Amino acid sequence: MPVSRRIAARDGLALHALEWAGDEARTPLLLLPGICRTAWDFALLAERHAGKRRVVALDYMGHGDSARAPDVSRYRPERAAGDVLDACAALHLPRAVVVGTSFGGIMAMVLSILRPRLLRAAVLNDIGPRIDPRGLALVGGFAGHDPGFPGLDEAVAYLRTVMPRLPLPDEEAWHRFAALTYKPGADGLLHPRWDTRIQRAMEAGGGPPDLGPAFRGLRPIPAMLVWGEASEFLAAETVREMVREKPDLELVTLPGAGHAPTLEEPGVAAPLDRFLDRIP
Hints:
This protein is α/β, with parallel strands linked by helices. 36% of the residues lie in helices and 19% in strands.
């Protein structure tokens, strides 16, 4: 089991991370989840690599066990990037192999510009320098919604509706995903594991940013792209542009999958683990 770490961001608000011990001589893994997701999403991946190297998974501000901010502007993406850097300083991560799902992949690209020496290698999970508007519409409606489900069955039914292409193999996997998405509140109902005000912060940010320069920051390092072929966030043309821009980019495609692969799919986990194991 991981150790729970609570650290202070530069404004004093508490950030939470999960840490698995491992060989300190190897570059640690830094696992950055998607928006509306938490560090626990990476538990199975972390357990596969724990012992071989140190593994740290982060909860962004307003997510999981990190603090809820009094001011909604605290959830702007640029503040999240600062939080990641604060967490790296507090947890003594001068260099890391970053695995980022969706928003976490955006953070990885941004960090390649803000702190180039931090990234030893990067894995982008279903995200690239251009974000498909369909994905923004999907997450926008979802992020601000607190349905208050009476149980996991109702949560699963809802998630199947809003994320029909999520590549989960069976009912057990859907229930696990729902349990990672919602938690019981004081009223006995299931509520989101994130502050739903993040939707307002996303809307205040305007349209999707141009992340082309940030993606080019990954040119000098080993990088892998995991792509759900039916992704609502990452269009095929963007993937082709990424491969042209970085010819050594390792591409793993999950046919028929939407946003975002869990990184536990057999067609993803094996090549991902081989990629990570090659990094000293």
